[in-house]
Structures are given as structure tokens and as C-alpha cells.
Amino acid sequence: MTDKTDIDFNTVMASSVHDMKNSLSIILNSAETLSNDASLNKAQHKAIDLLHIEGERLNNSFIQLLALYRIENKQYSLNIDSHNVYDCLEEAMFENETLLAHHNIELEIQSDQALEWFFDRAMTLGIINTIINNALRHANNKIILAASDQQSGLIISILDDGPGYPDTILNRNDTEQAGLSFNSGNTGLGLHFAKVVAEMHRKGEQYGRIEINNNGINGGGQFSIHLP
Amino acid sequence: MALWSLKGKSILVIDDFAEMRSNLRNMLLPFDAIDISTASNGDDAIEFISRNIYDIILCDYNLGEGKDGQQVLEEAKLRGQLPYSTVFLMVTAESTTFMVMGALEHQPDDYLTKPFNANILQKRLKKVLDKKSHLKKLTVALQEDNKSLAIELCDQEISTNPGRCNELVKLKTELLINEQRYDEAREICNTIIAERNLPWATLCNAKIYYFQQEYEAAKKNLEEIIAENHNYVSAYDWLAKTLLKLGNPVTAQKTIEEAIEYSPKSVTRQRMLAETAETNQDFITAETARRRTIRTAKNSILSDPNDFTKLADAQIKNDNPKEALKSIERVKHQFKHDEQAQISATLSKSKVLKVMKREKENEALIDEVTVMVKNISTPLKNNLALEVTECFLAHDKADEAQNIVEQLVSNNHDNQELLDQVSQVYKNSGSELDPTAMVNSVRKEIRGINNKGVKLLEAGNIDEAIELFDQALAKTPDNQALNINSAQAYIMKIKSSGPSNQLLTKARTCLEKTANNKNLQQRYKTLNAAYWKLSKKHNSAIL
Questions:
Q1: What region, left, alpha or beta, does residue B56 occupy, with left being phi > 0 and alpha being psi -120 to 50 degrees?
Q2: Beta carbon pairs, A and B, within 8 Å
Q3: Cα–Cα 20 to 30 A to B129, which of A100, B168, B376, B520?
Q4: Quick one: pLDDT band at residue A168, thresholds 50, 70, 90?
């Protein structure tokens, strides 16, 4: 058996995560209830929207930090199974439906409905949600979730019609330690998480990876996850 | 928004946090859900589920002190209180939890990770409800334990709906293994592994090796899974079982301890640790594991008086006979109405008194056991019968011992392993007596009854056969051959003179007793299928 203190910290952590997730649930659902109130004025709507979007970001960051901690401490290994890709993308859309509507952004899914691939569903959805949350703040009125199976594996892309990623992010060498070298705050954490999780997806000698460019809609941002 | 409605659905929300309960309730209200009950802990939840049938159960995995969501689900399923039509959604704080839970025998219909909004909840519920109604035939087949039909239905669905049948492929593979159709199961696993090394397929391969008694091969597969997926808990469980078969209980114990670190609230796993530690003479670990087993199983169908007597045994070994007596006292209170448990506890107490050298009290206790055994209303369970026999032989009660052995043999006349154990008990006692002649005569008698009954059935004298089997079963209610023959007699009776609730119940009772007997599996399957056919006909006639 391991050290008693070790077990205790894990128990404390698991129950704290439980508590914090409860708090987040209540904050986000309260924001959602408020945002459906027709009597609010524009400024109030905007404030609630901020509450909502920042709450979602907080949640994404929390999931990422926790996952990175668990991976670091060998408490998490990927749960690879065969999943329907279209259903996953659809779920990501549902999760962000309210925010998309409030920002007047249309989300389109481009994927074969029968497409199946091997990946860790929860972690991959974590990446997609983070990128959508990011795209929400930069897109003008459209986001595309696209998936296709190529010879190298599955590619899931999130494209927006915003101004695109700044050069400081695009010029980073993909192979260098990502994440903490990005200085744009929680975008850094999100990208680091995406990189770590993508690279954990492995098939023989092939490793997963992420790719960022400005080949999105009308030169907007495009983020792709390659899963072998 | 309310195109889709929960009107008329009965819903149970289980969460330890009051705000979350009202939060969930608020999410459901827009969909016309009216009948919403809430429970704040596992024990209340189980109480609710035992008294009502819910259409939908939303259960948080983490329920604070006491039972967790997985235990609630397990308990409801084991008690048969969760009909296939009920949707059970498990709510978790971390998506990583279901990796640990994922491979367990009792699975919820889906998982939801917090936080989620009304939209997600509705979509998930709809998806599961649609799936349930779409796969209704399959779930009925599973409920009726008709595995070969279930496999066929899986095949049908897999061929008509490619792209979304991963779960069905898994289910089919498990069913094939259950049905001992190992070659077919192995082929599916190998096809999958050729494309991608999925842990569940490797686990199935390992199970097949295990059942085919190729333990080294099973071990290799299981170690592979664990090297790649260190929190795949059921691989640890199977590895421990395999190591025990390979005669390596020390490593088996380490393996179970690792699994427990990931998932401590499992009664069967804690119990397996206790048993293995006992084998390893590691009574410190055994004592702790028994305590945890008892605590985890509290108020559960999995609660077993045997854990208390085994705890007492460990406490004796750890030089603490006073604590041992206390553990035994707990059986007296908690299993007041369980005659077998009381006898077993009294035997345990006798062992403690012996250690404490309180001989006089001990003699009185043995007399107590004699009276209890005499007045018992159901036959002693096999292991207990052996223990009582051992005790009686040690205390010069050869006649009482013989009565018990007669009863034991007549209930198990075909169980050679047990009959050997009986001989062993006599030999170890140093007694001059040899039970062989008695065993043979009881065996002959039972075989005679069975043969006579089967001949009566062949001649079409169904009523006479039923009477004969009923009389014999009154004395030896667990005898396997008698039960399966009796089930057949009742089914023939129903076929010839029409079904009634009484006849169906009789047939069911006999069938259930033989459900787990490997030697009778083929006959059980045939009769079970016939039973359900008749039962359905009867039910639809009533409706």
C-alpha cells in the first residue's frame, strides 16, 4: 500500500474537485437562467454573457489543469476507444449552443455521419471546447467544425472567420515546449493541454499533433488536431 | 422548446448537495417533468428505488460519506429493482472517473460530466431513451437471460447500423464468452486488435485464455493492458484471479491492493483482498480488508455474515480474542433472523473460547449449536455443513454429524468435490468412522428417485412425476438433478394443461436453482427458453 498521506491527498483532491464542479455548475446554470430573462437591458445581457463565457473558460482551464496534473502523476492514461466522430462534434456544438446564439454565431458541422475513429473522447472534447470558446471571442459570425479521415489519421479542425491567430503564436516552432512559451494567458494553457493530449494519442510510431494556421474562413484562424 | 417532453415520467434525482438537487430539478421543469423525487444519500436512494419504479434516475457518483453512485447502481441491479426500461445516468465531477468505473459489470446507461446545462441533459436523455426503445427486443432478451437470441439481435443491429455499434460489438463479445463460444469471441477481438490495440479487446482475449485455463497467456495479456493503461481497474481484478490460479497469491495480493487504490468502494474487491491476504497468512491486511468489506457492504445486499466471522478469525491470529468476540457479537445483532449466520457465529465463538481456554463455556456453546442445527428450517449451506460436521466429530457427536452429512449428500449427490471434502473431514477428525457406505446409499436413493421421475415423464404421467419430485425436493431443496427434472415436469404440465401463475412460479423456482450449474447448462438453456415463451403467452393472455 502507498503512503497514507498520499491516499489522503487524493481523497481531498477528489472531493474538492467535486465541490468546485458543483459551484461551477450552479454559477453557469444561474447565468443561463438569467440570460433567458426577457426584461433585461442590453448592458445587463452583456454582463451575464461575460459571466457565462468566463465561467466556461474557468471550467475549461480547470479541466485542463486537473488533467495535466493527473497525467503528470500517472493517474491518467488515455481511454482510447472507437467513437462516432459526428456525434462528438455534435455534442461540442450542444455544449456551446447558448453562447453561440448570444454571439450570433452560426456553427456548422462538416463530417460524414458514419465516420468512426479511435481516440479519448473526454479529452478530445476538452480540446474542442477550449478552441470553440476561444473562437467565440474572435469569430465574426461563423465557426466550422470539420472532420475527415486522411491517410495519416483523423483530422478535426475548428475554423472561424475572425482576424486569425497573431504572428506571435503562428511563428512558434511546434516542436518546442509549447504552452508556457505562449504568453497570452489561458490560451497558453489550452494549447499546451491540446498538444500534450494530442501527442499521447499514438499508433505505433505515429504521434498525434496539433496545427495552427490562418487558413480558416476568409483568412480566419484554423486549429487542427491530427489523431493517428 | 418543449417539442420533447418528460410529461408523465417519474424521475429520481440523487445528489448530496441541496443546491445541485434544486439545480437539476430546475433543468427538468421546462420539459414538463412533474414527478421528481430527490434523495441526498445512497441509503435513501436505495430505499426510494426499492419502493418505486422510476423512468429516469440521475445519480451523482460522489455522494459524500456512505455509498457512492456506483454502489447505488450495483445495489439496485443486484436486487433486481432496476427494470431495463429505467434510464440511469451517472453524474461525475471528473471525466476520468469512468475510466476507473468503465469496465465494471454494472454500468449506467450514460455518464454526464459536470457542469452541464439543460440542453445537454435533454439531448443525452433523449438519446438514451431513443436507444432503449430502439433496442427493446435486445434488452428483453438480456433480461430473460436468452443469450443466443441476444447475440443474434446484436448481429442484426451491427449490420444495419455501422458507425455507431461499438457498444454492441463489446456486448456481443461478452455474451459469446459467457456462452463459451470462445472461438467466435476470439475472432472478433483479434480483428479489432489487428486494426487498433484497444484495451477492452485485449481484456476479452485474456478472459478467454483464463476460461480455457491458459493462465500464462492470460497473464501476459493483462500485464500488457496495465503497462499501457494503469487505471484500467478490471484488468487488475482479472490479473489477480489469474495469479491465484498460477499459485502466486503474494503477487495477486499486491495486484488487488493496486486496484483498490483506484477504486476502494467495491465490496467484492475488498473481500477478494481479505481472502487473498488470509491465504498469504497476512492477517494484519486481512483484518483491515475485512473491516473495509463490512463497512462498504453496510446496508447492502452484498453484506455477508461470513465477513464478521472471518474478521474474528483474523483478530484471533492477531492476538486480539476480545475484539474477535465483539465481531462475533455483531453477527448476533445484525443477522438476527439468519439461522445459518447464527450457527456460523456460534462456531466461531467456540473457536475463540478455545483460544481463551474457557473450556466449560465452550462445551455449553456446542450444545447450543446442536439445538440450533436440529431446529433449522433450511438445509445448512455446504461450507457450514462441513464446519458443523467437523465440530461435532471433535466433540463426540458422531450421530449428529452423520445426520448433517446425510442431508448434505442428498442435496449434492453429484458433487464429487464436496463428497471428497466430507471424507477429508472425517479423516482429519481422527475418527474411526468412514462415511463412504452412507454416502453411497444416499446417492443411490436420490438417483432412484430421479430415474423413476424421468420414466414417469416419458410415459406421460406428468402429475405423478410432479408429486414425486415435490416430495423429494421438500427434503432436499437444492439437489440439482431433482430441480432440473422438476422444472421439466412443470413445463410439460403447463404445455399440456395451460399456464397458471402457480405453475409458472414453481417452474421458475426450480430453474433458478440450476442457473449457475455448468454441467446442466444445455438443459437449463432449453428449459429457460421454453419457460419464457410460456410465460409471455400467459402474460399477454391476461393483459
A1: beta
A2: 109
A3: A100
A4: confident
CB-CB under 8 Å, B257 with A17: no
Give the distance from residue A166's alpha carbon to the nearest chain B alpha carbon, in angstroms. Answer: 31
Closest approach of chain B CAs to the CA of A30, in angstroms? 9
pLDDT band at residue B306 under the 50/70/90 scheme = very high
Chain B residue with Cα closest to A119: B198
* Residue in A closest to B95 by C-alpha: A122
Whether B114 sits inside 8 A of A78 (CB atoms) is no
Percent of chain B residues past pLDDT 90, beyond the cut = 62
In words, the CATH class of domain B10-134 is alpha beta
* B20–A25 CB contact, under 8 Å: yes
Domain boundaries, chain B: 10-134, 448-542
Domain boundaries, chain A: 4-72, 80-227
Provide the 3-class DSSP secondary structure of residue B16.
coil
Task: Copy the grid coordinates of residue B373.
Answer: 442445527
Query: Residue B3 has what pLDDT?
Result: 62
Per DSSP, chain A holds a count of helices (H) and strands (E) of: 7, 9
Residue in chain A closest to B116 (alpha carbons) equals: A25
Note the pTM of the prediction, 2 decimals: 0.84
Taking only the tens place, the pLDDT of each residue in A208-219 is 999 999 999 999
Find the residue in B nearest to A87 (Cα).
B164
Level-2 CATH architecture, domain B448-542: Alpha Horseshoe (1.25)
Cβ contact B118–A118 (<8 Å): no
- Residues B207-237 have pLDDT tens digits of 999 999 999 999 999 999 999 888 888 899 9
Min Cα–Cα distance to chain A from B165, Å: 9
CA B30, CA B471: separation in Å to the nearest integer? 60
Return the CATH architecture of domain A80-227. 2-Layer Sandwich (3.30)
Average pLDDT in the B334-344 region?
93
**For the segment B347-400, what is each residue's pLDDT rounded down to a tens digit?**
999 999 999 999 899 999 999 999 999 999 888 999 999 999 999 999 989 999
d(CA B232, CA B216): 20
Instruction: Find chain B residues with C-beta within 8 A of A78's C-beta.
Output: 229
| Nearest residue, CB atoms, A77 vs list B120, B163, B228 | B228
pLDDT > 70 fraction of chain B, expressed in percent and rounded: 97
> Sign of dihedral through CA atoms B400, B401, B402, B407?
positive
- A187 pLDDT band, cuts 50/70/90, is low
> Mind telling me how many Å the CA of A171 is from chain B's nearest CA?
33
Per DSSP bridges, beta strands B110-113 and A209-213 are unpaired
